[in-house]
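Good day; I would like, with your permission, to put a structural problem before you. A protein sequence and the structure tokens that stand for its backbone fold form the material at issue. I would ask you to consider whether the tokens describe a fold that such a sequence might reasonably adopt. I set the record out below, with my sincere thanks for your time.
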Amino acid sequence: QDVGILAVTLPRHGGDGSGRIIGYEFLVGGGLGFSHTKENTYPRLGTPLYFVQRDEIWPLLEAVIKIQRDYGERNDRKQARLKYTLDRLGETRFRELVREYAGRDFPPASGIAPVAQPDYLGWHAQQQPGKWYVGIWVENGRIRDMEDKGFRFKTGLKTVIERFRPSIRITPHHNIILAGIAERDRDAVQACLDQFGLPTDKGISTLRRMEMACPALPLCPLAQSESERVMPEFMRGLEEAGHGDAEVVFRMTGCPNGCARSSTSEIGLIGKGPGRYVLLVGGEYNGTRLNVPLDEKVRHEEVVPLISGLLTLWKEHRQDGERFGDWSWRMGVEKLREMLGRTGK
């Protein structure tokens, strides 16, 4: 995002149970979109610049907006995002401009970053006594009945919500949380979910818990390749190859605009033409490190065998507790290509 504001709770990330916020980490210059044929475009993580209190957010945000207004690129649409403005000006000059536009300084960033990426699936007790929430997995965020797969998302969610009237949340992984469920209703809600085949933390493989795909074809005019419609095929192939137990953040987009955040995943696929993809590896599990291209010419039929081979190598050569993203980053793409026999790619 051009500007990111992260709420920080005590003691850190999840807090002391009170949910008390002690401040906000203010990041600038993020943006995952790029163009395959434009080397001066690139995905970028936001730069942490300040750690502020609630009443400081608006004057700081106003200053950043004015900097982009006055210094942002106007002649080349591909360079119009704030991330390019920040890189052109440099962090030191950007801070000077913030001080000039806001008329004051702000405290420096604290360096706090997310330490986990929860999926919120399954049953969890809320802070309110006697209340529960349940996270429901929705395949690629598409709320429709999929009779052939045994998922009746549309009918099931409609039935549960009309009967029990929970509050509703949508997660960053395009799943759904039903909250505010009374203790006495837990069994009845679960029975209803089971009736319509709605998975929670049960009923799907570990691999699928962190999958994400953008809509792409036929809905998005920017799509260069399939995404949502083929992700289930890729998942089934990897499960059949014995990798349903792999706890890996896997994301896919039909173009390089980054809607499903493929550039921050441990394994990412980005469309590059009909039936062709760029395969990326090495992203940090919590989204704080960009991945890098391993193979920029992967055909549709190569996706499952190639990723299956990578997961097998990871399981064979990882250190204790080492996640796929960290392992593939440590190995490096040249070594991975050698291990996969794709050095000529």
Observations:
- Residues 10 and 200 are 29 Å apart (CA to CA).
- The first strand starts at residue 3 and ends at 9.
- The longest helix spans residues 54-71.
- The mean pLDDT is 94.
